[in-house]
Each structure stands twice: as structure tokens, then as C-alpha cells.
């Protein structure tokens, strides 16, 4: 018993010392559970630079892409990492969808992480291939019903933002059985198939769709936010799905920052302070606006509010996912 108490005291002393010297010379790694070059990767790299500045430039940040299984491999890696503040997870809405999508999830999103704060929210756009006959959203729904069983909708893989958006939209218009879902191994191949006309529809983040819409490579039909994107010159005239008659439809793809459970409170406080300062960095805000993202400024930058939000998102997504019958081991 005395030995256990001595070991516990030594561990507490070590954690206290680490907190006082954090981050020290060891780099802080942002684990991104998706491929390099994707929207979450871009957010992580912008945030890493902003947090490096907010910590006085002395901290060294590294972005590590751990792709696979809808983001669960990377998330599990962080859940099992040493709780010293040097391994963090930058994840999107998949943090909330995974419990309903996977029967054998290796981690518990609400129990195995320390919540550090939300970063941004990204609107989604409903887009179609250039050859699609429907000229606007009203015509699109009519076209889908007239061609039930003949059309398909692409997504970037199980648990991806485009997968969730497609599920929610098809459920909202009662067209889950009317369209064939085509999964791809990432956003780029899914978008390439849409631009090339091999698939008919896709619902994805503005970070991925804006350039394609502007270039005329895809048709844009609607945005998924509760209010029109009046601040976006390209998308400001697109209707929201709520305006199109889908009451209550409101979906944005958010990103949040997480640490392994058990990370010392003093270290968490330092990271949260650096995050909040980074979210006010003009360069970071400008970069996010360029991606069509909105930097979070409300109380969700605080750990407790962040966790409460994710809890609500888990509850919101569960019935949609279960109705779609999209499960994986």
C-alpha cells in the first residue's frame, strides 16, 4: 500500500512538472484522422500555425494524417496516446456520428477524451453533375421522384461529411430507397466522378465545392444551413433546404480539438488558452473564410460547452443513421 502511495505521489509530481514546462522541446502533434489535402487536414494545418503563434512561437506543431475507417483509426490512436498534451485530435462531425455508425467502436467519444473547444463550422452544399437536367432545387426533387431507382449519390466514405449529409437529405425527402449510394475512398475521387458525370449527386462541404461551382464543373442546388449564406458572393443566392420546404434541416460540419483522457488540467488550460487566442488571429480567420468556414466565437470554445454540443449532435444523428441502416464493424 505504501509503495502504491509513493508511486501515485511520484506520478502526480511528474505531471505537475510537465504542466509547468509544457510544451517544452517536444512537438505537439495534431492527429488528423483523414487523408492529407482534405478539408480537415487544411483546417488542422491552419490551426497549428495559429496556435504556434499564440503560444509565442516557441511551440513546434506537427500534423499527422492517420486515415482510415471513417476517422476512427486516428481517433482511437489519440484516445490511447500518452495524456501529456503532446498528442491532440482535430476531428469533425465524425466524432458524433461514429457511435451510431460503428457496432464495435474501440473508443468512447464522451469518455475517452478531454474536450478542448470547437474550432469552426463549415456549411454544406447540395450539388449535381453538369449534365443533370434539373435547373433548380424544386425541379431536382421532382426529377428524383420521376427517376426513382435510376439516380445515385456519391460520398467520400462511411462516416464522411458527405455521407452524413447525403443520409440526412435523402431521409428528409423520403428518397432513401430512390437513389443508390456510391461510396468512394475520399473526397477527391468522389468529386472527380461527379465532375466527370459518372455519378449524379453529392452533398459536401463548401471547402470542397466552392471552387467546382465557381468553375462551372458542377451544378449547385441548395445549402444546408438554417440561413442563406449572404456573406458568400458565390453562394448567397442559393436557397437553404429549409426554404425549400425541409423544415428544421440545419447541418454544418464542425471541427473540434481533443486530448487523451487524463491530460493534466494545467496542460489542458494552456492548450485551451492558446486555442482561443488562435481563433481570434486575423490570418487564421481570413484563411477559414477563404474555405467557406466560420470560426466559432461562442461559448463552445470552452470545454464544457464543446462537450455538451457533441453530446447533442450524437443524439441528433443517431435516429438518422439508424433509419438509413448504415452500420459497420
UniProtKB/TrEMBL annotation:
SUPFAM superfamilies: Periplasmic binding protein-like II (SSF53850)
Pfam families: TctC (PF03401)
KW DNA damage (keyword) present: no
Signal peptide start-end: 1-19
Keywords attached to this entry: Signal
Family: Belongs to the UPF0065 (bug) family.
Record's protein name: Uncharacterized protein UPF0065
Amino acid at each position: 500500500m505504501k509503495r502504491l502511495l509513493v508511486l501515485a505521489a511520484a506520478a502526480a509530481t511528474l505531471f505537475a512538472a510537465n504542466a509547468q514546462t509544457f510544451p517544452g522541446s517536444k512537438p505537439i502533434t495534431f492527429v488528423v484522422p483523414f487523408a492529407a489535402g482534405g478539408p480537415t487536414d487544411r483546417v488542422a494545418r491552419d490551426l497549428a500555425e495559429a496556435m504556434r503563434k499564440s503560444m509565442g512561437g516557441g511551440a513546434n506543431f506537427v500534423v499527422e494524417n492517420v486515415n482510415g475507417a471513417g476517422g476512427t483509426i486516428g481517433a482511437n490512436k489519440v484516445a490511447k496516446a500518452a495524456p501529456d498534451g503532446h498528442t491532440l485530435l482535430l476531428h469533425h462531425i465524425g466524432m458524433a456520428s461514429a457511435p451510431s455508425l460503428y457496432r464495435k467502436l474501440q473508443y468512447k467519444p464522451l469518455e475517452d477524451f478531454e474536450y478542448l473547444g470547437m474550432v469552426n463550422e463549415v456549411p454544406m452544399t447540395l450539388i449535381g453533375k453538369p449534365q443533370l437536367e434539373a435547373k433548380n432545387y424544386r425541379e431536382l426533387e421532382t426529377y428524383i421522384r420521376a427517376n426513382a431507382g435510376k439516380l445515385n449519390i456519391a460520398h467520400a466514405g462511411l462516416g464522411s461529411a458527405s455521407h452524413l449529409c447525403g443520409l440526412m437529405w435523402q431521409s428528409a425527402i423520403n428518397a432513401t430507397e430512390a437513389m443508390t449510394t456510391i461510396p468512394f475512398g475520399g473526397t477527391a475521387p468522389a468529386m472527380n466522378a461527379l465532375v466527370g458525370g459518372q455519378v449524379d449527386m453529392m452533398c459536401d462541404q463548401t471547402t470542397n465545392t466552392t471552387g467546382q461551382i465557381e468553375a462551372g464543373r458542377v451544378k449547385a442546388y441548395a445549402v444546408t444551413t438554417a440561413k442563406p449564406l449572404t456573406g458568400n458572393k458565390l453562394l448567397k443566392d442559393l436557397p437553404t433546404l429549409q426554404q425549400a420546404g425541409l423544415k428544421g434541416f440545419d447541418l454544418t460540419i464542425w471541427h473540434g480539438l481533443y486530448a487523451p483522457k487524463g491530460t493534466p488540467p494545467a496542460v489542458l488550460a494552456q492548450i485551451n488558452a492558446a486555442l482561443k487566442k488562435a481563433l481570434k488571429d486575423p490570418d487564421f480567420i481570413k484563411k477559414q473564410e477563404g474555405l467557406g468556414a466560420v470560426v466559432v466565437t461562442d461559448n463552445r470554445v470552452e470545454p464544457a460547452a464543446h462537450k455538451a454540443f457533441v453530446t447533442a449532435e450524437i443524439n441528433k444523428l443517431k435516429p438518422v443513421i439508424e433509419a438509413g441502416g448504415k452500420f459497420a464493424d
